[in-house]
C-alpha cells in the first residue's frame, strides 16, 4: 500500500482468490483482521477455520458479525492496516438481524471516508447469475449490489479478482 | 458521446449500476428512453417505479415490451440519443410470447447497424453462476449469452459495469 | 500464438463466446481438440453436437472425460497446438466418478508447466451468482474456483471473455 490512508475494495466471486489477494495487499507489518463470519453450522465453521489457517498467526483477529462500522472506527490507526473479510457475510448477518442495511452501509462509508490508515475490504459479486428463485434471494442480491456500489464510490481503489488475478476498476495498481 | 452514430452496449449484473452508468452516457440533451419492462406483479411494478423515479422528468419514455427493433427504428434520429433498458427484459418478454429470439436479435442488430444517432443498450450478464436447475433457466441463459454476443459484435463500444464502475471490453472510453 | 510453448486459460460464463474465442487463438495449423464432455442426456448430446458443428472438420478430436492430464501429456507436441474444452465438464466428470480433484488438478498443472507446444484451455467461471442451494452445488463451485486459480497460476496467459470480447487478466494480448 503506497499511501497510509488508502481504502481498497476487493470484489470477486466465490473461491476467486479475493481473500488471498486482499491479504497480499497488507503483507507488510502488523495488520488487523476483522472477521464478520458466524458459524451457524458445521460447513460454515469449516470455512472459517480454513480462512484462519491460511492467514496464519501473523494476524490479530477481531470477530464482529454486526457492528462493523463501530468496530472499524474503534481500531482505525494510521500505523496499522485493517482487512475486513467480508461485506457479504456482514450483509447476511444484518438481514438476518432485521437491521436497516442502507443506514448501516452509509455509516460504514462515513467511517471509511475518515480512515487515517489503510483499509482493505472484501466483498462478493453475486448478481451475475440468473434471477434468484426466492424473494429473499432477490433482496439479498439487490442489497449486495447496492453495498458494493456505495463502498466502491467511497474507496480509493476497487479491484475485481477472477482466478486469483486482479483487474483494476478504480485507482492504479 | 463523441460521435453521433455511436452504439454502446452496457453489460452488468443485477444492481451493478449499469442503468445509472448508461444514463450518464446520455446526460446531455433531450434523450429518449425505451423501456422494455412489463409489470406482471407488484415487485416488478416497484422496480419499474424506482427506475422511473431515478431518471426523473428529463426523459421521454416509450414502453415497448416486444417490438423493440421496430420501436427503435421508428424513433432513431441523429439529433436525439436513445437508451434501451433493457435487453434482458425484452428477451424475457420474447420467450414468454413464443417469438423467435434469433430472428428478433438479427432484426435488432440490423437497426443498430443503420443507426444515425447515439444508442445505448443495457443488458444483463447472467451466465456466471452455476448451471440453472431448469431447462427454461438454461434456455434463457443461453439466449441471453447469444443476444449479448451478437449485439456486442454490432456495437461500437461494449462496457462491463461492476459496482458502478466501467471496464471497456470494446472501443475507447 | 507468438511462442510455441505458451499456455492460455480462457475463462468465461455460459454462452460468453469463450470456446469460439479459444478456437480463434489456434486458427492456424493443424490443431488437436480434447473434448471432455459426455452426453448423459439428449440436451447434452445436442450441446456437444453444436460445438462439433461449429468447429468443422479442421479439428482432430480426442474425447477424454476423465484422464485429461494423461491425454494431454500423450498428445503434446511442439508442432501441434491443443485446445482443451472444457475444464468445467472435466471437473463435473471427476466429481461424478469420486476422484480426488485437487490431486488431478495438480497433475494437470504439472503437464501444463512442461508443455512444449501451445495449449489453450477453456473453463467456466461459476462463482458470481448467489450461494447455491445444495451442498453439492457449493462443492462444485468451490472446486471450480480452485481449479481456475491453480491453472491460472500455471498458464502464461489468462483471458476473461464476456459477450465474445476478451479481457486480459494475465499476459499480453
Task: Kindly describe this structure.
- The structure is a homotrimer of 173-residue chains.
- Chain A is of the alpha/beta class.
- Chain A has a single domain (7-170), classed as 3-Layer(aba) Sandwich (Rossmann fold).
- Chain A is 42% helix and 21% strand.
- Chain A has 6 helices and 7 strands, in the order E-H-E-H-E-H-E-H-H-E-H-E-E.
- Chain A has helices at 18-25, 42-55, 68-75, 87-96, 101-113, 135-154; strands at 7-12, 32-35, 60-63, 82-85, 119-124, 157-162, 165-170.
- In chain A, strands 3-2-4-5-1-6-7 form a 7-stranded mixed beta sheet, with helices on both faces.
- In chain A, a hairpin with a 2-residue loop joins strand 6 (157-162) and strand 7.
- Chain A starts with 6 loop residues before the first strand and ends with a strand.
- The model of chain A has no long low-confidence stretch (mean pLDDT 91).
- At the A-C interface, helix 6 and strand 7 of A face helix 6 and strand 7 of C.
- Chains A, B, C: One of its GO terms (molecular function) is cobinamide phosphate guanylyltransferase activity.
- Chains A, B, C: Keywords: ATP-binding, Cobalamin biosynthesis, GTP-binding, Kinase, Nucleotide-binding, Nucleotidyltransferase, Transferase.
- Chains A, B, C: The active site is at residue 51.
- Chains A, B, C: Catalyzes ATP-dependent phosphorylation of adenosylcobinamide and addition of GMP to adenosylcobinamide phosphate.
- Chains A, B, C: GTP binds at residues 12-19, 35-37, 52-55, 63, 85.
